[in-house]
Amino acid sequence: MVLQNVIPEDKSAAVTRGLREAFGVEEFDDIAMLTKGQSGALVYRIIVRGSPYLLRIITRTQDPTLPQHFTCMKTAAEAGLAPHIFYTSIEDRISITDFVDAVPFPMADALVRVPATLRTLHALPPFPRRVDHLNTSCMFLLNKGAALDGFIQTLRAANIFSESEFGELLAWHARLAEVYPRQEVDMVSSHNDLFKPDNVLFDGHRVWLVDWEAAFLNDRYADLAVFANLVVTNEAEERVYLQEYFGQTPDEYQRARYFLMQQVAHMFYGAAFLWLGSKSKPVDWNQPVPAFTDFHRRIWAGEVNLADNDMKVVYGRVHWERLLQNMRLPRFEEALKIVSDRHACA
After folding, report:
1. Which residues are CB-contacts of 276 (< 8 A; sequence separation ≥ 6)?
2. Segments forming the whole domain that contains residue 232
């Protein structure tokens, strides 16, 4: 098949180089663009000598994180957490990996399989660190600096929240930032983009994590709390989920850290998606908002397209409503006290 018929003309030579180096050929047998997912990259399923592979072309012309992206992906692949890599080129910004023939992943299975996968990921040799302005995880909100200050100013200027709501948001943020610990022991190799179910594939036998662009060394509870939003629906499931991760029944401190990180995640995704989706237009807060669990069940089932700006606003509001509920629970004050007391005695 002629590359130019499918691949952008300016990437044709790069893809040919990749095919030649990986497989000793200059053309593939078949190709299909994959439109599912929210990555800005061009992603294709290609057939070479009868076998399927994934070709990924990163379209950003300036991407200082690309070397780190490929390094983390390689480490994960060597550990059996990411598909096998056949070819990468930082210069050409492309990769060729095994293609995962994914099947539906029941939430009940994900509840136990994914935390075990995260335990393995977090035990890998340390990924590189990432500077604040490139931190795209919810931990961004707990890293003081110019980037966070700029985001807060941008959020205030967008007039998404009323003055009282924004003041409440800042007060909650200050309490979380004051109490939540930054411990080196909890800085682990992390994926950092697990709010998207597209990045967690199941082939019927094992879990594969894909799309490593946001990977870096981060707090272990970030991956843990963010993915839980998709599959954990009550406290009983939370205990199962955390037990699979820690390998034993979670203690009160671990549950408190996890709960506080969940609130950081709600704050981060609520504010960020409201800002991204509103495009500086007023948010209609009178519109009904779906229940958190129901909406995330739809996300897990692939029924929600977060590329749509209106859906971004809905997603942001879903997280905002859950944050409002949780910050007023007795558990929030209890979690702050448990974590604060632990580190006051350290």
Report:
1. 309, 312, 316
2. 107-344
312: left (phi over 0), alpha (psi -120 to 50) or beta: alpha
- Measured CA to CA in angstroms, residue 115 lies from 75, 202, 207 at distances of 19, 14, 10
- Determine the Cα–Cα distance for residues 199 and 265; give it in Å rounded to an integer: 18
Q: Given 36, 71, 98, which residue is the final one in a domain?
A: 98
CATH code for the domain in which residue 58 is found: 3.30.200.20
CATH code of the domain in which 125 resides: 3.90.1200.10
Of 75, 98, 121, the last residue of a domain is: 98
Each of the 346 residues of the chain gets a pLDDT tens digit; together they read 555 568 888 899 999 999 999 999 999 999 999 876 556 789 999 999 999 999 999 887 666 677 889 999 999 999 999 999 999 999 999 999 999 999 999 999 999 999 999 999 999 999 998 765 567 899 999 988 888 999 999 999 998 998 999 999 999 999 999 999 988 999 999 999 999 999 999 999 999 999 999 999 999 999 999 999 999 999 999 999 999 999 999 999 999 999 999 999 999 999 999 999 998 788 999 999 999 999 999 999 999 999 899 999 999 999 999 999 999 999 999 999 999 999 886 5
Tell whether 216 and 266 lie within a shared domain.
yes
